[in-house]
Amino acid sequence: MLAFSLRGNAACLIHLPTDMRYETPLIEGRLIRRYKRFLADVELADGSTLTAHTPNTGSLASCCIPGARVWLRDSGNTERKYRFGWELVEPRPGVLVGINTALPSVLVQEALAERRIKELKGYEHVRPEVKYGRENSRIDLLLTGKGRPDCYVEIKNVTLAQDGIAYFPDAVSTRAAKHLRELEHVVAGGGRGVIFFCVQRGDVATVRPADHIDVEYGMALRHALENGVEALAHAARVTPDGVALETRLKVVCPE
After folding, report:
1. Strand ranges in 36-136 using DSSP code E only, listed in sequence order
2. Where is 182: in which H helix or E strand?
3. Where along the chain do its domains lie?
4. What is the mean pLDDT of residues 70-78?
5. Would you report the helix, strand and coil content of the chain in percent, each value rounded to 5?
6. E strands within 93-187?
7. Which site from 106, 194, 245, 247 is most exposed, i.e. has the minimal number of CB atoms within 10 Å?
8. Amino acid 19: pLDDT
9. Is 243 left (phi over 0), alpha (psi -120 to 50) or beta?
């Protein structure tokens, strides 16, 4: 079984004989506010407050609720300006959401190692962060295997949800649309291009493009799918102990 360790702002894979988990216990608090994109003020149980790093560049729409329970990771590095990092939030009772965008690649690699993603079985090698494409991109995971076309997997972290539907993106993202174009070029060249939506919450059944937020991305996703790009999605079980992909979701693009 693979587990993850977060060192600084990077996510690393480590081998452990137990379930996937955080390397150190998370610290619970209450969100005061998120601001300047990468900062969040949090009140701890003893009434003290601290400023934590927010490892997410999106808007975190539906997750930034003042007073919501949050969980922080202690990096243990007293030399860092922001020693603590915001990992989880409970936007509504009983629903935990993972916000750290460093985790999805780790989660997908763990699921691949355990052969839990049937569409991506059979590849012998997995390489992260490989340069490719016409627009100076890096693919999250490159899967290769004898007798199989190279498979380029672009992973997107999904936190936004409403009424059982997860949406991506949660803010306008020209970069995300660029990645879809790159995957189309991969398919045109004889490879496999996969957009993988990693939903770090367990209260959804489908994933849809957030046309109400970024209409251009919605159009780009539909165009990519029409031209051979594959869309996969899995929801995660999120707890203060750890996060792991569990449930396969449908990707739906309404007309």
Report:
1. 39-44, 49-53, 69-74, 84-92, 95-98, 125-132
2. helix 174-188
3. 2-98, 103-251
4. 95
5. 15, 45, 40
6. 95-98, 125-132, 137-144, 151-158, 160-162, 165-168
7. 247
8. 47
9. beta
Cβ neighbours for 189, distance < 8 A, ≥ 6 positions apart: none
Looking at residue 133, the DSSP 8-state letter turns out to be T
Residue 20's pLDDT band (cuts 50, 70, 90): low
CA-to-CA distance for 232 and 251, rounded, in angstroms? 7
**What is the fold, at CATH topology level, of the domain defined by 103-251?**
Trna Endonuclease; Chain: A, domain 1 (3.40.1350)
pLDDT in tens, 136-181: 999 999 999 999 999 999 999 999 999 999 999 999 999 999 999 9
State the average pLDDT over residues 91-97. Answer: 96
Residue pointed to by tokens 């009140």: 43
Nearest by Cα to 235 from 192, 193, 187, 197? 197
Distance CA 120, CA 154 (A): 13
Q: Three-state DSSP class for 212?
A: coil
Same CATH fold assignment for domains 2-98 and 103-251: no
- CA dist., res. 180 & res. 154, Å (int): 8
Total residue length of the chain: 255
Find residue 35's DSSP bridge partners.
Answer: 39
Q: d(Cα 224, Cα 239) in Å, to the nearest integer? A: 34
Which fold is adopted by the domain 2-98?
A: OB fold (Dihydrolipoamide Acetyltransferase, E2P) (2.40.50)
